[in-house]
Design goal:
- The chain is α+β, with helices and mostly antiparallel strands.
- It folds into 2 domains: about 5-135, 2-Layer Sandwich (Beta Polymerase, domain 2); about 140-260.
- Helix content is about 50%, strand content about 15%.
- It is built from 9 helices and 6 strands; from the N terminus they run αββαβαββαβααααα.
- The protein has helices spanning about 5-15, 55-70, 85, 115-125, 140-165, 175-195, 200-210, 215-225, 240-260, and strands at about 20-30, 45-50, 75-85, 95-100, 105-110, 125-130.
- It has a 6-stranded mixed beta sheet, sandwiched between helices.
- α2 (about 55-70) links the parallel β2 and β3.
- α5 runs antiparallel to α6 (about 175-195).
- One of its GO terms (molecular function) is transferase activity.
- Keywords: Transferase.
- This is Adenylyltransferase AadA C-terminal domain-containing protein.
- It holds the Pfam family AadA_C.
Length: about 260
């Protein structure tokens, strides 16, 4: 069942959208996996349009998202506005389209995570409006998804791992700990199991898969993301340095493991 705040933000978008332009609305991310965390998760969407919007219609979409943000100030409603035909093909061929990320509206933004978005939509998407997802014929390729995941670890996350190794105090903040630990673990989970999952589920999997020396920081990342027992439940009372060091070490370990056969 879709959480009420998610249903409400979708209803606002569909009500405010230019008449006749939006043909479908679909959700991915935590909502699709049934593990949307209030206060933590964004509402990740893919909207389909009847045609490529002209300048006036792009401006209307911008105003639509301004209205959504005003009505739901505590939620980020993030995603691209594509044609149904874009979803049936490799996202590498998708042109720049109107995109929202962190309330920043881009009239012609690149769908950087299209490979992930298309697969989440095909395998775990939630239908809100328009054609059923199965009728969209969403493109998938397990090989491309795996290659994209390894490349993400080898570039973006390797850079983060190197930065944390040089200054582990950067990983001591709660937001950095949860973001790094669960972010890399979710990617590695896909490479090991072949299945997509959420950050929280990946963290729980990591507790069964990674060496015990990483369990403390995994439990901490899960506590932070799920707000378990608040600050009283921390694994690192009065020891921010150790939390930063453990965050740095797990991030580097997972990057190395996930890219070792490249």
């Amino acid at each position: 069942m879709t959480p009420e705040p998610v249903s409400e933000v979708c209803a606002t978008f569909l009500r405010e959208a230019p008449a006749g332009l939006v043909t479908g609305l679909y959700l991915r991310g935590g909502v699709g996996f049934g593990e949307w965390v209030p206060g933590q998760s964004d509402v990740d969407f893919v909207a389909t349009l009847d045609h490529r919007p002209d300048d006036a219609e792009v401006d209307a979409l911008r105003r639509t998202h301004e209205a959504v943000a005003a009505a739901h100030p505590d939620l980020h409603f993030d995603g691209p506005h594509v044609l149904a035909g874009d979803l049936a093909a490799d996202p590498a061929g998708c042109p720049d389209v109107p995109t929202v990320l962190g309330r920043l509206f881009e009239p012609a933004g690149t769908v950087h995570d299209g490979v992930v978005a298309w697969h989440e939509l095909a395998w775990h998407g939630v239908h809100v409006a328009g054609l059923p997802i199965v009728e969209l014929g969403v493109w998938t390729s397990r090989e491309r998804l795996r290659d994209f995941t390894v490349d993400n670890l080898d570039t973006y996350w390797r850079g983060n791992a190197e930065a944390l190794a040089a200054m582990p105090s950067e990983g001591a903040a709660e937001t950095a700990c949860a973001w790094c630990v669960l972010g890399v673990t979710r990617l590695h989970h896909l490479l090991v199991t072949g299945e997509m999952t959420t950050k929280s589920a990946a963290g729980r999997w990591g507790l069964t898969y990674y060496p015990e020396r990483f369990h403390r920081v995994l439990r901490e990342a899960l506590r932070i993301r799920e707000d378990i027992r608040g600050d009283e439940g921390t694994e690192y009372p009065d020891d921010r340095h150790a939390r930063g060091q453990d965050t740095a070490e797990l991030t580097a370990y997972v990057v190395a493991r996930g890219t070792e056969r490249r």
